[in-house]
Design a protein that fits this description.
The complex is a heterodimer of chains A (279) and B (291). Chain A has 279 residues and is mainly alpha-helical. Chain A contains twelve helices and no strands. In chain A, helix 11 packs antiparallel against helix 12 (244-278). The longest helix of chain A has 39 residues, at 15-53. Chain B is globular. Chain B has two domains: 19-50; 64-289, Orthogonal Bundle (MetI-like fold), CATH 1.10.3720. With 291 residues, chain B is mostly helical. The model of chain B has no long low-confidence stretch (mean pLDDT 90). The longest helix of chain B has 34 residues, at 65-98. Classes of the chains: A mainly alpha (279), B mainly alpha (291). At the A-B interface, helix 1, helix 2, helix 3, helix 4 and helix 5 of A face helix 1, helix 3, helix 4, helix 5 and helix 7 of B.
Chain lengths: 279, 291
């Protein structure tokens, strides 16, 4: 506390007002509620949390949520990078509309997306009927959850990768081509490594969003315990039973697992940055 | 370009930094197919289902007392939470970009925190703090201010999930613009309020509008966090998304999708305005949004 002052003196007006509004609202809206969850967890104790979480139905829900979120985020990673490339590099009619449509999952309320996807993929829906021809059930199975999670995570990878594609210097690609590399070789060894850190950021965002997603999933999921019941739904069920301890325990478990996943992704990101630095 | 210097273009000339026409066409095809299935089809489905029994039936369902109450409630929630969020965003951006203090990065992380919390967990947190059995909720309820299962709880849940929207748009723009203009105004003797109104606000107005736009779209559409705290009392605490869920569970698809179509129209207007802002005022938005 001695050397550097906490806040540098500045002639700029509005310090008290802006700091006051910021800290007050942050506390009331975000910090106090999250603190209440952590406090609940602390009073419940690790043993209590473990006892609640360590049940077949809870594990099934957590495993389902994280596994399908991972699959959906992986799908979005591949599709999102391809989409970013197409939107930045190619000129074709309808490009602007496609570009705007990428943000649709951000703009469309999750409950609206949920019932719309259910209408499409239900056995009597437009896509559901087609799938039924080959005996494929989508709505009310894990496929339905996967599709809903792909939908909500769709914009993240594209939006983080797009600015990076814009900044790639053509000279690098030209150099690679003059040295005799095929286009595929250039894309694999020059372009994709440059996009990797941004793509991973988008992947992490997409994953985090999918893990917590509720509105677009519950309509299409069918919500059968042990099979298509996602972790956020289990929290809601416990809350409706007024079992706040159990709801808090599952909430804390979700926060912890998300935190661990984001940590791993951050480590991969650091590693991929370093690798590209070496190239 | 190299190809203009060539006297005669070979029939199948292709710059070395482009994919083959076949690969190009395939990628564009994948983009159209993917977005067609994932983005356009659900959007079309909403309107098709809403109009399944004709436009009269869907308008009639929108005129029902419950639907009207839901629309009124959602607009009220947005009208209260979006300005609060804008005030917070401006204050936070001013505090963070105009002053130097320790823990700035930490503060920004805290502001971004709601993005990485599941909306359901957000609702749960508000329950545990402000619910009748919560830390402060019991006391507030006996004082005559019930928070949860009432409008204040829905506003808190909405504020939580939209918390970073405005601040996130403003902070990068205000960092980029620096402090020199405000400092010049200060040396000329302008008051703080006047500096903000005549110097800062004109510089950040499009970024502010952009943030407010995203914030209102989310505020009107929030489902998970609101589902936890609203109590789903028909005509009182059932917002539009909550009412859509209730109607859908009651096997009233036309009524559910008609209300959904109203929200989908709002989403389309949001996207349109957002695209216009990105094209027209790209230089005054955060760098990552520039097209």
């Amino acid at each position: 506390m001695m050397g550097r002052p906490f806040i540098h003196r500045s002639p700029m007006p509005g310090l008290g007002l802006s700091m006051g509004i910021t800290l007050t609202m942050l506390s009331i809206v975000v910090l106090l509620p999250i603190g209440a969850l952590l406090l609940k967890g602390a009073s419940y104790g690790p043993a209590g949390i473990w006892e609640t979480v360590n049940r077949e139905r809870v594990w099934a829900a957590l495993f389902l949520s994280f596994r399908l979120s991972l699959f959906a985020a992986l799908f979005n990673l591949v599709f999102g990078v391809a989409l970013a490339w197409v939107l930045v590099r190619y000129r074709f009619p309808g490009r602007r509309i496609l570009d705007a449509a990428v943000d649709l999952p951000f703009a469309l309320p999750t409950a609206v997306a949920g019932i719309a996807l259910t209408a499409l993929y239900a056995p009597n829906g437009a896509f559901g009927r087609l799938a039924a021809l080959i005996g494929w059930k989508i709505a009310y199975t894990q496929w339905g959850i996967f599709i809903a999670l792909v939908f909500v995570g769709l914009p993240f990878v594209t939006r983080t990768v797009q600015p990076v594609v814009e900044e790639i210097e053509r000279e690098v690609e030209e150099a690679s081509a003059t040295l005799g590399a095929s286009r595929l070789h250039t894309v694999r060894h020059i372009i994709l490594p440059m996009l990797a850190p941004a793509a991973l950021t988008g992947f992490a965002l997409s994953l985090a969003r999918a893990v917590g997603e509720y509105g677009s999933v519950i309509f299409i999921a069918g919500n059968i315990p042990m099979v298509t019941e996602i972790a956020p739904l289990l929290i809601i069920i416990r809350l409706e039973e007024f079992n706040y301890d159990a709801a808090a325990a599952i909430g804390i478990a979700m926060l912890l697992i998300s935190f661990l996943m984001l940590l791993v992704i951050n480590l991969i990101q650091v590693w991929s940055r370093r690798r590209i630095g070496d190239v | 370009m190299s190809d203009t210097s060539l006297a005669r273009k070979p029939a199948r000339f292709r710059p070395a930094t482009e994919e083959s026409p076949a690969a190009r066409r395939a990628l564009i095809g994948v983009a159209f197919l993917g977005l067609g299935i994932l983005a356009f089809a659900p959007l079309i489905a909403v309107f098709a289902e809403a109009l399944a029994d004709g436009i009269a039936a869907s308008l009639r369902s929108l005129a029902s007392p419950d639907a009207r109450a839901a629309i009124r409630l959602t607009l009220t929630i947005a009208a209260i939470s979006v300005p609060l969020n804008a005030i917070f965003g401006i204050a936070a951006a001013w505090f963070i970009t105009k002053f130097d203090f320790r823990g700035k990065a930490f503060l920004i992380t805290l502001i971004d925190l709601p993005f990485s919390v599941s909306p359901v967990v957000a609702g749960l947190c508000i329950m545990l703090m402000f619910g009748t059995n919560g830390l402060a909720g019991g006391w507030l309820a006996t004082m005559g201010y019930p928070i949860v299962f009432a409008i204040p709880g829905i506003i808190l849940a909405t504020l939580f999930v939209t918390f970073p929207f405005v601040a996130r748009e403003l902070i990068p723009v205000m960092i980029e613009q620096g402090r020199s203009e405000e400092e010049a105004a200060l040396t000329l003797g302008a008051s703080g309020w006047r500096i903000f109104r005549t110097v800062t606000l004109p510089n950040i107005r499009w970024a502010l509008l952009y943030g407010v736009l995203l914030c209102s779209a989310r505020a009107m559409g929030e489902f998970g966090a609101v589902a936890v705290v609203s109590g789903k009392i028909r005509g009182q605490t059932a917002t539009m998304p909550i009412t859509i869920e209730m109607l859908y569970q009651e096997y009233l698809p036309v009524a559910a999708f008609s209300l959904a179509a109203v929200l989908a129209l709002l989403a389309l207007v949001t996207l349109l305005l957002k695209t216009v802002l990105e094209i027209r005022h790209a230089d005054q938005l955060a760098a990552t949004l520039r097209r």
